[in-house]
Amino acid sequence: METSNKIVYMRSLYKDLGRYENALKTFKDYSEEYEVYKQWYETKFEQLVVDKIKLEEEEDQQELRVMGVGSGSGEADYEMLTELLSRYPKIRNTVIEPADQMMQKYRHLVTSQQQSLSGVVFDWRLQKYEDYQQDCQQRGDVTKFHFIHVIHSLYHMPDLDAVLESLWERLHNGGVLLIIITSEKSGIHHVHEKFNKKLKADNTMTNATSADVQRVFDKLRLTCKVYPQPLRLDITKCFQDGDRDGELILDFLANTIDFRNAAPKILLEDYMQFLKESKCSEVSGDRVLLNMDWNAIVIQKE
Fold first, then answer.
1. Sign of the dihedral defined by the CA atoms of residues 173, 174, 175, 181, in that order
2. Residues 6+ apart with CB under 8 A from 265
3. Is 174 helix (H, G, I), strand (E, B) or coil?
């Protein structure tokens, strides 16, 4: 009898950046992610992050040092920088992003918003955070940052303990570290937990969640605060054969190129059935809404 326990090697979505960008855009269109994040930055960011940053007296007139790890195309960074500029007119923003296409989009965004970002000096680093850290060690660069943010990028860092400890060391006294990451209670986490090993695509993406981050901070005896944020993804079209948007959403969820056609039939059937389970999704009329809840983790260095 055929089962879905066999490991199947498929191509990671990150191997085709054009398809990845299309899949990401489709994901955003069907999850209202942009609106959710924009509202969060406009209503929560100042209270949870900006108000907590404490500069020493001699630093008050100096630039605020910010580091973004895995900043992608920069939309989230832009929202945060504009909020920070209202209080800190001079900002030096270090951008760490390994994907050249994403960084080019970020640079284009900065150019198009040059007036509103006139107080920001950008330091572009086209590399992984681990490589950035290694370069700093070789150069003896011990720069500390007043604000560090890691928005949905810890999944690409296999040594979570080392990365978080390094970020904490890079944080200036009075500085704030913001991590946004999938909730361990979310439906998408349950999907990844069940299928990631079976999907064995050629990538090193992990299934890290908020609980993993809290575990590391507990180990380091650091206290963080966790703020949950609900998010739903309409995956109804994933169940409609031949629907282009549904196929792209599936690719994004499974992190696999052309998942519907690449996956063996039994694996695809199991995957689609599991997506509909109550621990993963809610059924609202004819719509299937996948739970994509995430948590904002905030920690301040006293």
1. positive
2. none
3. strand
Helix (H, G, I), strand (E, B) or coil at 74: coil
- Burial readout 208-246 (b: 16 or more C-beta within 10 A, e: otherwise): bbbebbbebbeeeebebeeeebebbbbbbbbeeeeeebb
List, for residues 24-50, the tens digit of each pLDDT value.
999 999 998 888 998 999 999 999 999
Read off the DSSP letter of residue 181: E
Cα distance between residue 210 and residue 218, in whole Å: 12
Contact 245, 298 (CB under 8 A): no
CA angle 159, 173, 184 (to 5 degrees): 40
Task: With residue 252 as reference, give the H or E element that holds it.
Answer: helix 244-254
Contact 294, 152 (CB under 8 A): yes
pLDDT tens digits, one per residue of 181-222: 999 999 999 999 999 877 765 556 789 999 999 999 999 999
Separation between Cα atoms, residue 135 and residue 143, nearest integer Å = 12
Exposure b/e, 91-107, CB count within 10 A at least 16 = b: bbbbbbbbbeebbebbe
What pTM does this model have?
A: 0.92
CA angle 196, 290, 285 (to 5 degrees): 145
Question: Which of 232, 107, 211, 195 shows the shortest CA–CA distance to 154?
Answer: 211
Q: Report the chain's terminal Cα–Cα distance, integer Å.
A: 59
Residues of the chain with pLDDT under 50: 1-4
Nearest residue to 194 via CA among 272, 246, 292: 272
